Model the fold of this input.
Amino acid sequence: MTKIKFINARFADPNEDELAIKRRFEWHLRTLRALRNGVSPKLPGDFEDELRWNEDLFAIPLSENDRSKVMRRARRVIRARAKVSGLSHLSSDDQRRLEVLRDGADLVRIGSEHRADEIAAAIHAEMPWMAAATDFLWKAMRRSVRVGEPGFRLPPVLLDGPPGIGKSVWSRELGHHLGVPRCGIEGTAEQASFVVNGSQRGWGTAFPGRPLQTILQSLCANPIVVIDEIEKAGAPTSTKGQSYGLTEGLLPLLERSSAAAWKCPYYQVGFDMSWISWILTSNSFRPLPAPFLSRLEILHLTAPTKSDLISFAEREGARRGLCDVSVGVICEVLDQVAGAHKLNLRHVSRMLARAEAMASSPQPH
Done:
């Protein structure tokens, strides 16, 4: 685990509030006047003389005018600090939300090439038909270890293939094995571009994007962000006629150099979003624009075979606690009809769900 500076902002010492600065200025003023009045300074390392010195300072009177001047100076310091913090334009509530980033955010890394091998092997054992994606992941993990990166980041990838083959499930397995949070976004959502990037103040409901919210909640700077069916994303339009397409909004986030200094539309502050692992899925990548595709590794995936579906049913049935008879019936059905019909993981999951429901329903007497 490594800490990185995630936000382009400066946070003042929480112990240095207005009252603390006022007290320090008053103490400094008393010290100056005490020395001017001929009070002997304290002897270093002499505890009794330090007590005498403190008593002499407390005896120095401060007028109301003195206290007013000190308070004005303390407030000027607070305002100057706020100005250079990069957060002065935000409300106190938003500043408190970003306060969690004072000490940075964590990066989760791959400990060794052996650990990379273990993760890839475990995912491949669960989903062998996703071999192209797992091989891409495996090579990226080993490369990350070899170059000594402080955290793991999967290069932006598009998993292109028929629906129901487990593209989203594969990303969940990856998040589980890496131990990082996962943020899932439906590309078909009407406001998908705003869900990813956030929206500027001035829109009816302004909010930060889901990837940034995920990082703020987990304090992990390299989560997995999955956008499903990106080719179906619409382009919301503002009242002024401006279009906000998802693919256009993603362009600066997919480039590592621009993502490192990405400015959030909502907070209007820079964040280092360059460690996010972007996993996009599509049923057909052809509608997507060329500039967008050029920033992605495109992996073409095929549907699981009949034997893959049967193996998945056996593993998932055991995980759900179904009896051997129920799982056996489902596997037998798959063996008989999977070749003639285009079945996928969603069909198998529905069969398992029905079997689970039947097993938990009360038996008639």
User: Anything to note?
Assistant: Residues 64-85 form the longest helix (22 residues). The CA atoms of residues 2 and 150 lie 6 Å apart. The longest strand covers residues 277-282. The chain has a mean pLDDT of 88.
